[in-house]
From TrEMBL:
UniProt biased composition (Low complexity): 36-49
Segments of this protein annotated with the region Disordered: 24-53
Keyword Transit peptide carried by entry: no
Protein name: Mediator of RNA polymerase II transcription subunit 10
Any one GO molecular-function label of the UniProt entry: transcription coregulator activity
Length: 206
């Protein structure tokens, strides 16, 4: 075995470093290939949804920390004396720093809050009342729309009855056209839901 092969074997046995026959150092790298490292990086990459959740969590934690600092500041001010001047200044500085941190974290969150919710909070009310009011408003509008729809259906039925007495042939032709149009629309809907193998698409239940 020549000196080069001996040196290479020694490098492999010692984990990557050995002296060559001409005095040069021969290294053998055990690092992962660039492909492996890039695959690892891609596997640990976070999605935008995860980033938004993380940003929101950071803002919530900052708010809770700010509330704690305000409580500590309240306790310090309520029992203030000469000896508590330094702790008071420290807590004021901590509060300012945390408010600045909260502002920077909030810039990463894209959350739109209705003004009504903020007004309820300012009035000392439960923000869930906004959701309840919105649902009640939707129910009321739905009832109004349903009433209008029923009124139009009743008027249409009444008009057809009156027209049928005066123009029976025309009304019969109209009914046939409506029936043919409805059947054609039904066939078109069924054709769109057909799969290439002849099966019918089944709508998933939510």
């Amino acid at each position: 075995m020549d000196s080069t092969q001996t040196t290479a074997s020694a490098a492999a046995a010692t984990g990557g470093v050995a002296a060559g026959g001409n005095g040069m150092m021969i290294t053998q790298s055990n690092d992962a290939s660039p492909v492996d490292s890039s695959a690892t990086t891609a596997g640990t990459a976070s999605t935008p949804t995860d980033d938004q959740k993380q940003n929101l969590t950071q803002v919530i934690n900052s708010i809770q920390k700010t509330l704690g600092l305000l409580h500590q500041l309240y306790l310090t001010v309520s029992s203030y004396n000469v000896a508590s001047q330094l702790p008071l200044l420290q807590r004021l500085n901590n509060l300012v720093l945390e408010l600045d941190n909260m502002t920077r974290l909030a810039e990463k969150c894209n959350i739109q809050v209705p003004m009504e919710v903020l007004n309820l909070i300012d009035d000392g009310k439960n923000p869930d009342e906004f959701t309840r009011d919105v649902l009640n408003s939707c129910i009321a509008k739905n009832q109004i729309t349903k009433g209008k729809t029923d009124a139009f259906k009743g008027m249409r039925r009444h008009l057809l009855e009156e027209l049928e007495q005066s123009f029976p042939d025309e009304v019969e032709t109209y009914r046939e056209i409506r029936a043919a149009s409805a059947a054609e629309a039904k066939r078109a809907a069924q054709a769109q839901s057909m799969l290439p193998n002849g099966d019918v698409k089944v709508k998933a239940e939510n």
